[in-house]
Amino acid sequence: MSRNTWRTVLGAATLVCLSSFSQANADNDTAAPINQDACMKCHKRNGTMLGIHANPQLHLSCQNCHGEKGNHPRKPNDLRVFSDEITTDAMTANQACWQCHDAKELGDKAWFHNMHADKLYCWSCHKLHVKDDPALQGASSLQCRQCHAEQPAQEVNRG
Amino acid sequence: MDNVRRQFIKGGTALVAATSLYLLHDAGAKDQTTGQHRYAMLHDENKCIGCNACSEACRATNQVPDGVARLRIERTGPYGEFPDQYYHFSRVSCQQCEQAPCVNVCPTGASYIDPETGIVTVNSWKCVGCQYCIAACPYHIRFINPVTHAADKCDFCRESNLREGKSPACVAACPTKALTFGDIDDPNSAIVAALNQQPVYRAKEDIGTHPKLFRIRAKAGGITL
């Protein structure tokens, strides 16, 4: 094979490599290291982490929050489930988040964390797998309304 | 002679009594037909959750520019030790004084008490921006509106919602119904019923401004659902 042909093949191979790499970059959300976790072999559909915890610099894996695999998928197991249907009291269950997020610091930054710490699960307001956590979007009074409303939200004429 | 005098006195007294009764009756009737009100508000600090839905609605409804506010909720706390903590919330807005210092000091008559509603109001066309009212207000709630350059403050939405027959924006927006608005001259109004039901207080009552923003003092401890 002539030297020129080799050059062409090498060039083509490089192009293919580059293009596949950039594609992976564009599809960053699902390509985050956490989504290459062994768990994803089964949990493709329900578990993809698109939220801020997918940030590769955090070096998080599913087990960091959900706990070690242990018995799973057999039951009973020690996996943590972030659902409102669990019976664990809030103070114990929220420790999963408080291992990184200091509970008192959260209260200093956003006052409403304080009194809800022993009444609500963090995930009662925050949604962690979705791309944009609804609790961090827009007017916070809408979030309060979900529990505190005696009267429904009224359409406010904004101009 | 005596009889004539007696009859005269009797007749005169009857006439005076009849006339005054008639006048009294007439005044009462007149009051109802002209629809005079004395609007007031009650903030139940036990129900308030400090969500600021009221101040957001106020800003949107009355086109209050950013940087100034007609209404805000002042938060104090947290009280207690983590996680057993709670806050107190207090409404900061015009207290709608019946003896309003801001009205007394206004040199142009821009600040006045609307005789029909009892609401302390600012006529922005008459206001020259001298800020006497801002200095005189014992509650520090007045400000110069950066758009109109006139003094501004809460007027119970007199020029927005109230004009359209709706309740003030904050009252409508409150998710926990912590605000009650109504006519304290109307014995059947919700606010009179609420005022009669529980002890209330007003800010700086002792300085004699007779504010019409009533408050229910929050108990220690958080909100229970």
Automatic annotation (TrEMBL), chain A:
Signal peptide boundaries:
1-26
Q: What keywords would UniProt list here?
A: Signal
Transmembrane: is it a keyword of this entry?
no
Cytochrome c-type protein NrfB-like domain mapped to chain residues: 62-135
What name appears for this protein in its UniProt entry? Nitrite reductase
Species this protein is from: Shewanella electrica
Automatic annotation (TrEMBL), chain B:
Tell me which Gene3D superfamilies the record gives.
3.30.70.20
Task: Give the keywords, sorted.
Answer: 4Fe-4S, Iron, Iron-sulfur, Metal-binding
Kindly name one Pfam family recorded for this protein. Answer: Fer4_11
Which InterPro entries does this entry report, sorted A to Z?
4Fe4S_Fe-S-bd, 4Fe4S_Fe_S_CS, ET_IronSulfur_Cluster-Binding, TAT_signal
- Superkingdom field: Bacteria
Which residue numbers delimit the 4Fe-4S ferredoxin-type domain? 39-67, 85-116, 118-147
State the protein's name: 4Fe-4S dicluster domain-containing protein
